[in-house]
């Protein structure tokens, strides 16, 4: 999933890139059918050669005879989502040439769910001279172009991941 969230935590853009992986261990030539609850949201679909295109075109149902073993049945993209499965709560407080930053991340609606890989990227403003950022989960890297990457990995069940720190700003310049 690629999502852009503004400083107020409002979703600006969100797309999901997904795929359906299959591990077929069935004997004979099984004829399988797979349907989706809301197939109309799937864009840019690409199918394994075993998928019959006509049933998908007519009813958006996957019909196929799987080859043995593991393979990618399909890949897809979902555009224009109205919400994400995670929330991001940024908070900035600036005073006298410094700025405190705090970013909280968590699972929206179903705290029992697991997300295997969460990475947040954000651009530090050009007025930031230096930044000292750390997190209670994962790693934080700041590149020379002031792009910050927070690699959380799998979301922890016991606490919400948090990034905190201080940024030193150019004299006389506040955050945009």
TrEMBL record:
Residue ranges occupied by any MHD domain in the UniProt entry: 1-176
Keywords: Membrane, Protein transport, Transport
InterPro entries according to UniProt: Adaptor_comp_med_subunit, AP2_Mu_C_sf, Clathrin_mu, MHD
Pfam families, A to Z: Adap_comp_sub
Keyword Transmembrane helix: no
PROSITE patterns assigned to the protein according to its UniProt record, in alphabetical order: MHD
GO biological process: intracellular protein transport; vesicle-mediated transport
Localization annotation: Endomembrane system
SUPFAM superfamilies membership: Second domain of Mu2 adaptin subunit (ap50) of ap2 adaptor
Highest taxon listed in the record's lineage: Eukaryota
Record's GO cellular component terms: clathrin adaptor complex; endomembrane system
Name by which UniProt lists this protein: MHD domain-containing protein
Organism: Dipteronia sinensis
């Amino acid at each position: 999933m690629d999502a852009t969230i503004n400083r107020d935590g409002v979703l600006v853009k969100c797309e999901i890139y997904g795929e359906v992986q299959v591990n077929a261990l069935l004997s004979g030539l099984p004829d399988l059918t797979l349907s989706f609850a809301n197939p109309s949201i799937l864009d840019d679909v690409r199918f394994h050669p075993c998928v019959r295109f006509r049933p998908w075109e007519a009813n958006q149902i996957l019909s196929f005879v799987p080859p043995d073993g593991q393979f990618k049945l399909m890949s897809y993209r979902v555009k224009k989502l109205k919400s994400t499965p995670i929330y991001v709560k940024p908070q900035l407080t600036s005073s006298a040439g410094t700025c405190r930053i705090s970013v909280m991340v968590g699972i929206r609606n179903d705290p029992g769910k697991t997300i295997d890989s969460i990475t947040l990227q954000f651009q530090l403003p050009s007025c930031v001279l230096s930044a000292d950022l750390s997190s209670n989960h994962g790693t934080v890297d700041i590149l020379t172009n002031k792009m910050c990457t927070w690699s959380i990995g799998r979301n922890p069940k016991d606490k919400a991941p948090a990034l905190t720190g201080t940024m030193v700003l150019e004299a006389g310049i506040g955050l945009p």
